[in-house]
Amino acid sequence: MRILRAGDHKRMPWKNGKGETVEIAVFPPDASINDFDWRVSMATVAEDGPFSIFPGIDRTLAILDGNGMVLDVAGSSPVLLTTASDPLAFPADVPVAARLEDGAITDLNVMTRRKGLSHTLIRIDVDGSKTVPLPPSACLLLCHRGALSFRRNGETGALAAGDALLIEEEAATVLKIDGEARCYLASITTG
Q1: Which residue, of 16, 71, 80, 190, is most buried by count of CB atoms within 10 Å of its CB?
Q2: CA angle (37 as vertex; 36, 42 as ends), nearest 5
Q3: Which superkingdom, per the lineage (predicted)?
């Protein structure tokens, strides 16, 4: 397990140059925007426009802050995503247009290379104590709001808003969480 502090996340321009992304974690560790196997990042979207195209990549997006964004993914009906919506999975190699509902939003993106990997992204609200089952895959828990402490296999730690916990172990287990927080759990699976 490794804690990734909010202040250490890497900032870089979007692939299409129209904004900035905050990279929370990427694999392989020094991969670029063009050659990652998987990537978890946040971005602020301040204007309507197209998403960057990522050939061979699957993507899941969740709205962290703001009043929502309508995504028009080629081949599907437009979808309004808000902070209350479930994360939306879609291919990152088809045209996608975004239209802001009312002002800028911040989103969370999980992307995996389709050949050999897949992923899931779920929202977890913690108010007190919670036991979170972890699948047998690499996992990243982002503490978006609030703060929490965690325990797993004798290891303990704490996350503040913006911090993440990266677990790169392929053994199913559980994570015990205490606190008040809104979190997102990304699981990356081989195969």
Answers
A1: 71
A2: 65
A3: Bacteria
Q: How many structural domains comprise the chain? A: 2
> Rg of the chain's alpha carbons, rounded to an integer?
16
31 in any annotated domain: yes
3-state SS assignment for residue 78 = coil
Peptide bond between residue 28 and the one before it cis (omega within 30 degrees of 0): yes
Angle of CA points 131, 23, 33, to nearest 5°: 125
Place of tokens 């303990």: 156
The dihedral built from the CA positions of residue 37, 185, 105 and 82, taken in this order, carries a sign that is positive
Containing domain of residue 31, as a range? 9-115
Residues 6+ apart with CB under 8 A from 94: 53, 73, 74, 75
Q: Are residues 102 and 133 in the same domain?
A: no
